[in-house]
Amino acid sequence: MAPFFTFLFLLSTLHLTPTLQQTTVSHSGQINSNSVLVALLDSHYTELAELVEKALLLQTLEDAVGKNNITIFAPKNEALERDLDPEFKRFLLEPGNLRSLQTLLLYHIVPTRIELNSTTESTHHHTLAQDRVELNSQESGSIFISTAKVIHPNAVGRPDGVIHGIERLLIPRSVQQDFNNRRNLQSISAVKPEGAPEVDPRTNRLKKPAPPAKPGSPPALPIYDAMAPGPSLAPAPAPGPGGPHHHFNGMRQVKDFIQTLLQYGGYNEMADILVNLTSLATEMGRLVSEGYVLTVLAPNDEAMAKLTTDQLSEPGAPEQIIYYHLIPEYQTEESMYNAVRRFGKVSYDTLRLPHKVVAQEADGSVKFGHGEGSAYLFDPDIYTDGRISVQGIDAVLFPPEEKTQDEKKTIKVATVKPRRGKLLEVACRMLGAVGQDSHFSKCQ
């Protein structure tokens, strides 16, 4: 009987030992060197591993491995280096789009272990991004995860997970929608394809739209009639053949430069004022369609954040601020710097009449404004297409304050009796001696 009980004791010990070891690993929360996460960081999927580190997902993945086995569908390095759209990659790496990057990476991880072989059936799985992904097996033997082909099934296997190599990046619908909204500004409803209807003040009826401009015709509207009252300027070069109406598509160019501001980073407040707080984007698009050119001095977000509520609360205040940053000329960083180097100070007309913005050279750059309210050309040539030029500056410009009361200088004029000549005085004394001076008015 003793050998029998000894055999049962050893058998129970062998069955219990792995369970105790697994429990210790799962409750400790530490990842050992044999983990699938360590294998991912040490594998040849280096681009994916770098994105995981940049997205700050290591702790999230450690928690997921501690709870379940995971399956990672890892795109090859070429898919992230050469095949990925550069604009989309730039969008993912922007600090403000960290959530989109995290969603994209978690879309490649399934919280269950999936071993792939020739008998794999078509199934649906939930990813760590809370989206469903389809695993499809074709008759040819190829296996697809969503739209990407699995080129290296079971490339890395570890006790807590497995890695499969795929040929391209998987992009969830939510991330693609966010990228499309940032690229074409469809999410900004304030940008209208056409200007608002205009009412004729004499008849109180809607004005009829002007016929399309013919190729080579001069601009139909003076620039100040559309955006600010004032004297007329020399028009820009006449419009040439462009869109379906044979004129420049001003709205498209305005959308392009606003989208460039958003993608450049640091000018979201300026874009928000142009599109949401005012209708200046539509008015600028109309002007460019008529053949005019504009230079935009765009303050960055740090400068716009210093504006107070009082400066923006008055009716028309945002428009007046932006008007002072719009120059009805086409200037680049090179042309403005050459001008201030040659002439010292250069005054540019703005759409906030009659104020002008003064530019001068300072510290090897161009400085606008006066004194403490000056701004430096911070980001040159953010957008230049021959019609619209956008120059980034580091402060918001304001016109110099006008004196409310003119100092009036009073000049006191002393009234002095006209002096008589010496010959006349001598004659008056002689006449006074004989008593005849009263007969002459000059002697009185």
From TrEMBL:
SMART domains per the UniProt record, alphabetical: FAS1
FAS1 domain segment(s): 32-170, 254-382
Region (Disordered): 185-244
Cross-referenced Pfam families: Fasciclin
Main location: secreted
Biased composition annotated in UniProt, kind: Pro residues: 209-221, 232-242
Signal peptide interval: 1-21
Classification via InterPro entries: FAS1_dom_sf, FAS1_domain, FLA15/16/17/18
Keywords assigned: Glycoprotein, Proteoglycan, Repeat, Secreted, Signal
Domain of life according to the entry: Eukaryota
GO cellular component: extracellular region
Location of this chain's protein in the cell: Secreted
Function comment: May be a cell surface adhesion protein.
Membership in a protein family: Belongs to the fasciclin-like AGP family.
Protein name per Swiss-Prot or TrEMBL: FAS1 domain-containing protein
UniProt source species: Rubroshorea leprosula
